[in-house]
C-alpha cells in the first residue's frame, strides 16, 4: 500500500481531529496529515452493558465524539468541515472495559487487574464526512445508500448531512508480574491519569509490558495503519471489473433484494455479510462492503474517471422509493413506534407478512437510514419517528401513500407523455387526476393528505420568503387544505386569504382545519377547473363582490 497518496487524498479538505489527545495529534501529524484540532465535548457515558462487545462501545464513542464536533462546527461556522476524525481507546480485560482512571486508587485497581496478564486494547475510529444538503448535483442531493455508508441525516438542522465510516483495531498486550511497590511508583509518576487502562506504553509504562501483539500505535491511541487502509478503501473505489467479481453474498443489501427468489428469502440476512473480522468492518448492526467514492473531486488526481456515485444513485433511486413506500403502506414505522425495537420475526408476525421478505425489507430500511438495528432489534431512526409515523405532527406518511398509489403509476407513463407532445403531460397526468378526484372521495382525501403533509413542511418557508405585510388580500390557487393560507394569515395579521380549489376539495378541507383566530380571515372558494386562467377569473369575481 502506498501511504502518501492516501493521506494526500485529504490534502485539500478541511480535516478536523475531534480529540484532545496529544498522542493522536502527534501520530497523525507525523503521518503528514494537516488538520485542525477541536476536542469533542461528547461525554464518554454510553451504557457499556448495552454493547455486545468492548469494541462496539469504542466505535460508538468515537463516532459520537466526531459527530458532536461536526454538528457544533456546522452550527457555529454554518459550514461543517469536510472530514472529522474521532477516536476512542479502551482496555478490555475479558468483558470489563477500562478507560482513563479517575484517581490514583482507580489507577491502582486497573493496573492490578492487568498485572501479569494479557489484555486487549481497542481503538475505535470514526471518519465522518460532512456535506451540506443544499449543495446541488445528484450525488449530493439524493442520498440513497446502497452500500456501506449509512446516511445520518440530521432533521433538526435540516442541512448537515454526514456519512460515517467506522472501524476498530485490536492489539494484545501482556504485562509482567509487577510488585506493589513498582505499581505505586508508577502511579505516583502521574503518567496513568490520562491514559486508557492507566498506563502509557510509549513512556514509563513501556517498562510494565512483556509483549505486544499487533499495532503499537493502536495502544498509544490511534491505529494509523488501519486508518490508511480505510482511507484507501474509501477513496479508491473498486474498478468496475473488480465489482463484477464481487461475490453474491457481499453485494450490498438493496442490490440483492430484488434478485432473491422466495426460497432464498428466508435465510438471507443482508446485514450478515458485514459482520466479523477486523479488516474495514463496522461495528454491530452496520453493514460494510465495497464503498462508493464519496466525493468525485477526490478522484480528480486519478487516471480513472470519477466514480459516478450520483448517477448510480439515480439509477437505483426508484428501488429505494419503493422500499420506503412499502414500509409506509405496511405501517411498519407505526408498529415500531408503539412496540419497537422488535426482531424481524416479531415484525413479520405483527404485520402478517412473510418472515424472510420482512427481514430483507427491514435490512434495506436500515441501510437507507430509516431504521436502526441494535441487538434488541429494529427501531425507528429520528427521521422515521418525525416523518414516517402516520400520526406525527410532521408526518409525510400521506405523501408516501399517495406517491405510491398514484404518482408512481403516472410516472411509468412519462415516456408516452414526452413522446406524444406537450399536451400529453396534461393528458396523462392532469386529466386522469382530475377525473379520479371527482369520482372518488377516498382518493380525494388521499390526495389532500399528501399535499397537506408536504405543505406543513413548506408553508412557513413560502409564507415568509417575501415580506407581504403591505398586502391586504392574498389568494392561493389550488390551495387544497389551506395550510399555506393559515400560515399567511398567522404571519400577516391584516391579510385576508382566499383559497381556490375544486369543489370536492374545498368540501373536504374542513376536516383538516385546526381552528384558531386566523381562520376567520381564510375563505375557501370552490372552482370547477384546474386551469390557472379560470382561477384568475374566479379570483376577479370574488374581489369584485368584495
Ligand atoms: O499506552 C497508552 N494507552 C493509552 C493512551 C492514551 O489514552 C487516552 C485514551 O482516552 P480517550 O480515547 O478517551 O481519548 P482522550 O485522551 O480522552 O481524548 P479525546 O478528546 O479523543 O476523547 C488517549 O489519549 C491515548 O492517547 C496513551 O497515551 N498510551
From TrEMBL:
O-methyltransferase dimerisation domain ranges (all copies): 312-390
Name this polypeptide is given: Probable bifunctional dTTP/UTP pyrophosphatase/methyltransferase protein isoform X4
Biological process terms in GO annotation: methylation
Pfam families: Dimerisation, Maf, Methyltransf_2
Species in which this protein is naturally found: Delphinapterus leucas
Gene of this entry: ASMTL
GO terms assigned for molecular function: nucleoside triphosphate diphosphatase activity; O-methyltransferase activity; protein dimerization activity
Signal peptide: none
Domain O-methyltransferase C-terminal, residue spans: 412-510
Keyword RNA-binding: no
Keywords: Hydrolase, Methyltransferase, S-adenosyl-L-methionine, Transferase
Amino acid at each position: 500500500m502506498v501511504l502518501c497518496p492516501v493521506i494526500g487524498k485529504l490534502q485539500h479538505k478541511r480535516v478536523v481531529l475531534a480529540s484532545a489527545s496529544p498522542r493522536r495529534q502527534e501520530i497523525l501529524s507525523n503521518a503528514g496529515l494537516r488538520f485542525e484540532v477541536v476536542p469533542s465535548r461528547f461525554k464518554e457515558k454510553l451504557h457499556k452493558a448495552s454493547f455486545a462487545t468492548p469494541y462496539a462501545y469504542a466505535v460508538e464513542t468515537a463516532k459520537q465524539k466526531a459527530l458532536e464536533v461536526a454538528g457544533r462546527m456546522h452550527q457555529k461556522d454554518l459550514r461543517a468541515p469536510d472530514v472529522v476524525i474521532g477516536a476512542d481507546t479502551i482496555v478490555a480485560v475479558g468483558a470489563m472495559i477500562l478507560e482513563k482512571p479517575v484517581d490514583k486508587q482507580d489507577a491502582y485497581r486497573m493496573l492490578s487487574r492487568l498485572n501479569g496478564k494479557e489484555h486487549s486494547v481497542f481503538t475505535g475510529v470514526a471518519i465522518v464526512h460532512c456535506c451540506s444538503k443544499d449543495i446541488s448535483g445528484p450525488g449530493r442531493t439524493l442520498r440513497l445508500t446502497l452500500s456501506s455508508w449509512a446516511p445520518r441525516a440530521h432533521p433538526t438542522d435540516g442541512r448537515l448531512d454526514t456519512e460515517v465510516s467506522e472501524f476498530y483495531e485490536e492489539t494484545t498486550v501482556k504485562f509482567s508480574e509487577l510488585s506493589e511497590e513498582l505499581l505505586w511508583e508508577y502511579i505516583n509518576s502521574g503518567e496513568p491519569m490520562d491514559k486508557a487502562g492507566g498506563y502509557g506504553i510509549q513512556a514509563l509504562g513501556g517498562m510494565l509490558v512483556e509483549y505486544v501483539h499487533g499495532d503499537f500505535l493502536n495502544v498509544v491511541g490511534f491505529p494509523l495503519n488501519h486508518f490508511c487502509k480505510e482511507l484507501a478503501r474509501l477513496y479508491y473505489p473498486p474498478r468496475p471489473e473488480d465489482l463484477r467479481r464481487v461475490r453474491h453474498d457481499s453485494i450490498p443489501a438493496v442490490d440483492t433484494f430484488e434478485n432473491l427468489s422466495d426460497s432464498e428469502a428466508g435465510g438471507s440476512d443482508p446485514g450478515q455479510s458485514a459482520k466479523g473480522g477486523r479488516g474495514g468492518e463496522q461495528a454491530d448492526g452496520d453493514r460494510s462492503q465495497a464503498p462508493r467514492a464519496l466525493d468525485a473531486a477526490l478522484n480528480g488526481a486519478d487516471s480513472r474517471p470519477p466514480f459516478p456515485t450520483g448517477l448510480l444513485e439515480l439509477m437505483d433511486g426508484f428501488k429505494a422509493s419503493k422500499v420506503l413506500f412499502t414500509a409506509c403502506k405496511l405501517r411498519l414505522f407505526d408498529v415500531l413506534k408503539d412496540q419497537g425495537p422488535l426482531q424481524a420475526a416479531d415484525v413479520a408476525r405483527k404485520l402478517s407478512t412473510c418472515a424472510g421478505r420482512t427481514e430483507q425489507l427491514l435490512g434495506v430500511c436500515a441501510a437507507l437510514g430509516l431504521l436502526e438495528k441494535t441487538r434488541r432489534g429494529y427501531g425507528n431512526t429520528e427521521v422515521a419517528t418525525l416523518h414516517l409515523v402516520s400520526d406525527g405532527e410532521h408526518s409525510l406518511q400521506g405523501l408516501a401513500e399517495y406517491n405510491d398509489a398514484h404518482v408512481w403509476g403516472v410516472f411509468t407513463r412519462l415516456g408516452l407523455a414526452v413522446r406524444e407532445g406537450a399536451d400529453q403531460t396534461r393528458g396523462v397526468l392532469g386529466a386522469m387526476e382530475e377525473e379520479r378526484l371527482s369520482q372518488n372521495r377516498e382518493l380525494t382525501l388521499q390526495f389532500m393528505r399528501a399535499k397537506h403533509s408536504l405543505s406543513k413542511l413548506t408553508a412557513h418557508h413560502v409564507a415568509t420568503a417575501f415580506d407581504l405585510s403591505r398586502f391586504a388580500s392574498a389568494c392561493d390557487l389550488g390551495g387544497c387544505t389551506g395550510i399555506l393560507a393559515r400560515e399567511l394569515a398567522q404571519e400577516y395579521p391584516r391579510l385576508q386569504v382566499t383559497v381556490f380549489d375544486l369543489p370536492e376539495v374545498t368540501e373536504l378541507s374542513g376536516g383538516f382545519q385546526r381552528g384558531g383566530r386566523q381562520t376567520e380571515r381564510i375563505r375557501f372558494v370552490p372552482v370547477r377547473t384546474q386551469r390557472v386562467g379560470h382561477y384568475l377569473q374566479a379570483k376577479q369575481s370574488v374581489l369584485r363582490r368584495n
